[in-house]
Amino acid sequence: MFSDIGKLILRLNVGGMMIFHGIYKAVYGVDGVRSMIEAMGMPGSAVYGVYIGEILAPIMLIIGFQVRIASVILILNMLVAIFVVTGGNIFGINQMGGWIIEPQAWYLFGAVAIIFLGSGRFALDIKKGH
Question: What is the pTM of this model?
Fold first, then answer.
């Protein structure tokens, strides 16, 4: 039972923190992200994938529905974010002395952990969570 509580806490942490990024973009738009994506040579329409990765996938994690699929979506979202934000320079240090991709890495590795752990007992898709 304690491991199921741990899985719930991990899902709520990863999904709950990421959804704020999606809500911000839903309210204020994605133009800033679009310009970064286009500067990297990707089509501007790819920016709408951010809503899937930052709203839909976090909701799926929070409620415990198809968490492995949601985690894969979040991982892909973070890989694109890492590439777009750093241009591939993932070994840099930021102004505060932290790893340049630290925020993205927290989400990425949390999602990887969820893939291995599953949703746990406290989830919408209980049968697939164990």
Answer: 0.90
